[in-house]
Every structure is written in structure tokens, then in C-alpha cells.
Amino acid sequence: MEKIKSFTINHDTLQVGMYLSRVDGDINTYDIRLVRPNQGYYLSTASLHTIEHLFATYARNSSFGEQIIYVGPMGCRTGCYLLTRDTMTHEQVIDLVKRSFEFIESFEGEIPGSRKEECGNYQDHDLFLAKKDILPFLNRIRDYSVENLQYQD
């Protein structure tokens, strides 16, 4: 079998950041890398679950909501994927991600979609840790540009 592109990226050198991972027709996949892989710290499931709920809620309620295909966690617990239609420019996606994570940083209250009848694992959320976990990423993308979207060798 052919190795998928994300497995060809050297995860030992991959930094916290946002990367354009794939382009499939009119769908762009962004790698939202919140922690460095293989460095001993991984997002807890409760933190990642909370980040996913807040990120997806903000992105889908933004003016670009109709262009958001998917927001979801990485199985390795180092970040999230964001899939968008290519009708959004890379600059718009960067700005949306930045605003989404600023929203998470300042969020207070009940996590959207976290009630028992709304979520398959409603007890596995941690807002405090989610806010702490996003800070390195949020600091990294404050001055992000399209050039930063390329994986570095």
C-alpha cells in the first residue's frame, strides 16, 4: 500500500503550528499541531475533546460555517484536523483558526454539546487544561502567514 502523505512528514522535527496537509479537489486539510510529536507530552483526551467541541462550535458558527467540512482530533493526541472548502483563502483560514483559539482561550461556561444527551463521552472534558494546552499554539500563530503553512524538512 502507498504511504499516506501525513506519514511521510518527519514527526521528530515537526513543530507546533498550522500546516496545509492535503489538497483533494476542492477540499483543503489543515494540520493544527498543538504540541510537538514524540516529545513526551500529549494532549489528554479530556483536553482534546474540549478543544474539539469549542473549535468546531466557533468555526461552524463563523461567517465561514458553510465552508467548514470537518473539525476533529488527531488520534495521536497532538492536535486537530480542519477541513475546509477551497473557497476560503489560506489567509481566511489562518484568521479563522486564530480567532477560534482566542475564543477557546477566553471561553467560560458550559462546553457546547457537552450534556449527556448531546455527547458520547460527556464526562470527558477539561476546560482548564484545554486553555493551558492551546497557549503554545496560540502564541505561535499570532503572526502566522501563508508561507508558514508548508511543512519544514
UniProtKB/TrEMBL annotation:
Provide the GO biological process annotations. quorum sensing
Catalytic reactions of this protein: S-(5-deoxy-D-ribos-5-yl)-L-homocysteine = (S)-4,5-dihydroxypentane-2,3-dione + L-homocysteine
User: What EC identifiers does the entry list?
Assistant: 4.4.1.21
**Which GO molecular function terms does the record list?**
iron ion binding; S-ribosylhomocysteine lyase activity
Taken from the record, one Pfam family name reads LuxS
Q: Summarize the subunit comment.
A: Homodimer.
Q: What is this protein called?
A: S-ribosylhomocysteine lyase
Organism, scientific name: Massiliimalia timonensis
